[in-house]
From TrEMBL:
Name the UniProt record assigns to this protein: DUF2292 domain-containing protein
Classification via InterPro entries: DUF2292
Organism lineage: Bacteria, Bacillati, Bacillota, Bacilli, Bacillales
Originating organism: Brevibacillus brevis (strain 47 / JCM 6285 / NBRC 100599)
Amino acid sequence: MAKNEVSLDDLLLEKIARALDGLEYGSIHIVVHDSQVVQIERTEKYRLPVEKPEAKISQARTGK
C-alpha cells in the first residue's frame, strides 16, 4: 500500500466520523463506485414530541 493511500484512507475515515458527529436520528449513506468511495451523504432527522389526540381534545374543551 502506497503512502498516499494511507492518508486517503485516514481522510475518508475522518470525513465519515465528522458526518456521524452529533447525529441523533438519521443516516449516513456511503456511495461506492469501482471499489472507491465517491460520496458521503448525511440525512438528519429532527424528532418532535408528539401530542396524543386525547390531550388536544381536552385542551380544546378546557381552553388551555
